[in-house]
Amino acid sequence: MSDSPLRIVPNKPPESAQPAGSDAAQNEPKQDEMAELRSLLIEPEQIQIKNILERLNNPRVRAREMSRSLPEAIRQRTARDESLKEALTPTIVTAFHNSVKKDPRPVAEAISPLMGPAIRRAISNALNGLIQTLDQTLKHSLSWRGLKWRLEASRTGKSFAEVVLYHTLIYRIEQVFLIDKQSGLLLQHIASGSVSPKDADIVSGMLTAIQEAIRHFAHDSFGAHHDEPIEKIDLGDREVWFEPGSYAVLAVVIRGNAPESLRRDLFAPTIEGIHLEMHETLESFDGDTAPFDVVRPHLENCLHAQYHAHSDPAKFKTPAYVWLSLSLILAVISIWTFLSWREQRRWNNYIDELKSTSGIVVIETGRRDGKHYVAGLRDPLSVSPHDILLQRTQLDPNSVRSRWDLYQTLDPQFVLERAKNLLKPPQGVELKIDNGMLVAGGRAPHQWIVDSRKLAPAIPGVGGYLNQELIDEEMNEIETVGRQIEQHVIRFVMGTTQLVPGQNQELSNLISETQKFIFLAPTVSRRARIQIVGHTDSEGGEDINMRLSQERASRMLSLMASRAIQRDLMTAIGVGTREPLRAESSEPERQFNRSASFKVSLIDQPQEGDRR
Amino acid sequence: MIQKKICLLGAFAVGKTSLVARFVKSIYSDQYLTTVGVKVDKKTVTADKQEINLIVWDLAGEDEFQKVQMSYLRGASGYLLVADGTRRSTLETARMLQKRVTQSIGMLPFIFIINKNDLVTEWETDDDTIIEFENQGWSVVKASAKTGDGVEAAFRSIAEKMIGSNYSASSPHSGEEAE
Ligand SMILES: Nc1nc2c(ncn2[C@@H]2O[C@H](COP(=O)(O)OP(=O)(O)OP(=O)(O)O)[C@@H](O)[C@H]2O)c(=O)[nH]1
Ligand SMILES: [Mg+2]
After folding, report:
1. Which end of chain A has less neighbouring CB within 10 Å, N or C?
2. What mean pLDDT do residues A240-268 have?
3. CB A32 within 8 A of CB A25
4. What percent of chain B has pLDDT above 70?
5. Does residue B178 belong to any structural domain of this protein?
6. How far is the CA of A550 from the centre of ligand 2 (A)?
């Protein structure tokens, strides 16, 4: 700036006047007055000029002053004409280029806030589908529709999410472009009725260029391959999906959210079909698009399929009464579902109960004629299935049909029960099953013992009958009485058949015991026999003694018969001295041998014995 | 109707976008809005008594930081090389771009437009230079987007070249792959 024209103007600094002034003072004193006068007249101006010159020549001051006026100056100049812009452009452009060349980072940082959102958007678009899927799935999985779609999903083998997407997304395929892959020239285009197509061939070119640009960007930014196909671009309220073939690309403009499956189910087959049909034409395409009129139906099919699905928003508005009846149906269904679930649970419990009951074998369960059905085997001794049904479940007995065939289980518990039922053991008898054998213990009437011995082996499940431990009550008693009878010795006066006096008590005991013995014998199926044996002492001749003993026994028999003992049950024999009761070493011992003793026995009486 | 794709390429600010605007819409503006990426336009022309739908790809100009992406030229039937008569360097850029196109895409019909003919006083390009280009077999057209001078002619002659030329034998798909 030192060469700036401003500097030339104040060529004569005011200081240079002073030396001139001092010269004059040396020459002439008068001039002092002149000088004084002059100074009086022009000093204020001189000071002003001095200040001005200082302002002009001091770069710092000048810079400060200019900094005050520069913005205003630029404003004024810019308002007047373009010359400032023109003057500055080369400098600014060069400066910018230099700056970027030196260090591109500031510029990169400056524009990165713009890039960030763009990349974010790309990513969020990629995520869109996923979030949407989850969201929709959650929203619809519990509704009536959800149930319907679950059915559809299982019927068609698609995933539930896929079915939900297919049904819920409202979208519209607005335009379909068939574009030459290389040149971006439009081969064919159709648009849905309500869409006003812009210049389709320009759009076609733009779409191709955009794909190219994205590829470059992707390549430069993350090293993606140049030929990576672009799947879709997001234009805010709509998307353009690309479905590439080897020569042509299908570009589909979609408003709203279309299910990803469209690509697989509709677009890919379409572009493949077109390639199949138009292969040669596509290969040799050189700008003549007329032959591609024939593919219009293919493209229209893309539009049509979309309409067919559900582009019509009116269809999605469900009238209130439909909702009302739907919820009613839903309520009925859920109540029904609950009831049948509860019923089923009760039924299952019943079946489980039956299965865990011994003596019951469940063979078949199910439903017949709208009723529960159960069939199986049961031991007659088991708890009745019907009782279980009534007492342990809340099932309606009328809703259950059962068929039980009887069988006899070998379960020891049941065999024992069966045995008890059949044998009816009297009190005092204990039955048990041991190793398949029925074992009886305790005391029992003789008749029961006889009967049980016959019956027990025939009881199902009884492998044998053991009753050795069993005490025969009657036999026991009869034996006791028998032993008491045989203790009695009725004495006679020496040499006579006269009873020694004072034996009345013994005699009556003998009679009553004998009567009891005879009475009891039939209870053990026998007949009583009483043998009366006459004895003598060793004094006297043998013949006489023999006869005497015989007479004594007969006398005894008559006596007993007179006391109501059946005569034919008794026998009387005399043994003389052959079977002495005592050793006769004294008189009382000798007296013992002048007597009658008794022997009892029981003989079998098969025919008429059982009088019990 | 026959469709043809043509591209405009050249250094930045030589007037490619202005030429297209003039050609397609007959408008011109002194404002410079640099092209980002590609701008596609179309215009129907008659060449050889045949109607042709020209799809015009106006590419971003080449500068030190941004090269013209050759892949944009795939499938093009021809191109317009544009230079700015007032900037000599843009003619060199044009020469270089032509080489690059030939290398990566193959021989394609093209017209060399030297633009801003209205500023002829400020031209740094003399007739000798132009003759030099013509001697190499280039079709050179002096034009001005501002006045419209030579613009129609340039577009029509590229259309004719594409229709009539033996280049047309090289269909877009038989050309070499870009890059
Ligand atoms: N005087 C004059 N100016 C022109 C002419 N053509 C274009 N311009 C101006 O030159 C500047 C650049 O013009 P554009 O058409 O934007 O140039 P471009 O080649 O498209 O530039 P990029 O897109 O950046 O590569 C603008 O200010 C135009 O007004 C012309 O024929 N004469
Ligand atoms: Mg431009």
Report:
1. N
2. 87
3. yes
4. 92
5. no
6. 168
**Same domain (yes/no): A190, A267:** yes
Residue A423 counted as domain residue: yes
Indicate which ligand has the atom closest to the C-alpha of B62. 1
Q: Which atom of ligand 1 is nearest to the CA of B11?
A: 25
Of residues B164 and A134, which shows the higher confidence score?
B164
* Residues of A with Cβ-Cβ distance to B52 under 8 angstroms: 287
Structural domain count, chain A = 4
Has residue A106 been placed in a domain?
no
Q: Does residue A556 sit in the same domain as residue A603?
A: yes
CA of B37 to the centre of ligand 1 (A): 16
Residues A138 and A237 in one domain: yes
pLDDT score at B115: 96
What tens digit of pLDDT does each residue of A398-452 get?
Answer: 888 989 988 888 888 889 988 988 889 988 899 999 888 999 999 888 889 888 8
Instruction: Return the best residue to mutate from B27, B29, B32 for the ligand 1 pocket (most ligand atoms within 8 A of CB).
Output: B32
Helix, strand or coil for residue A6? helix
Whether A23 maps to a domain, the answer reads no
Express as a percent the part of chain A with pLDDT over 90: 24
Contact A235, A214 (CB under 8 A): no
Measured CA to CA, the distance from residue B142 to residue B136 in angstroms comes to: 17
Higher pLDDT, B16 or A36: B16
Nearest to A287 among B4, B40, B69 (CB): B4
Whether residues A442 and A552 fall in one domain: no
pLDDT value at residue A81: 81
Contact A184 B40 (CB under 8 A): yes
Residues A438 and A349 in one domain: no
pTM for the whole structure: 0.46
How far apart, in Å, are the Cα atoms of A170 and each of A133, A182, A512, A589? 14, 33, 117, 134
Q: Are residues A154 and A296 in the same domain?
A: yes
- Residues of chain A contacting B4 with CB distance shorter than 8 Å: 185, 287
Domain stop point among A390, A406, A422: A406
Task: Examine the domain organization and report whether A282 and A153 are in the same domain.
Answer: yes
Chain A residues 270-329 with a CB less than 8 Å from chain B: 283-290
Q: Which of B2, B37, B42 is nearest residue A209 as measured by Cβ atoms?
A: B37
Cβ contact (<8 Å) for B55 and A212?
Answer: no
pLDDT band, residue A310 (cuts 50/70/90):
very low
Question: Which residues form the domain of B10?
Answer: 2-163
Instruction: Decide if A19 is inside a domain.
Output: no
Cβ <8 Å between A183 and B171: no
Query: From the centroid of its chain, how far is CA A302?
Result: 43
Distance CA A566, CA A571 (A): 11
Cα(B167)–Cα(A72) distance, rounded to whole angstroms? 60
C-alpha distances (whole Å) from B116 to each of A358, A602, B18, B61, B157 are: 111, 159, 10, 16, 19
Matching residue, tokens 């199949």: A276
CA nearest A417: which of A471, A453, A462, A378?
Answer: A462
Q: Are residues A164 and A299 in the same domain?
A: yes
Tell me the residue range of the domain where A224 lies.
126-307
Mark yes or no for CB contact B65/A201 under 8 Å.
no
Q: Do B2 and A202 touch (CB under 8 A)?
A: no
Q: CA A524, CA A519: separation in Å to the nearest integer? A: 10
CATH of the domain at B35: 3.40.50.300
A458-467: b (≥16 Cβ within 10 Å) or e: ebebbeebeb
- Respond yes or no on whether ipTM tops 0.85: no
* A540: its two tokens: 């006297």
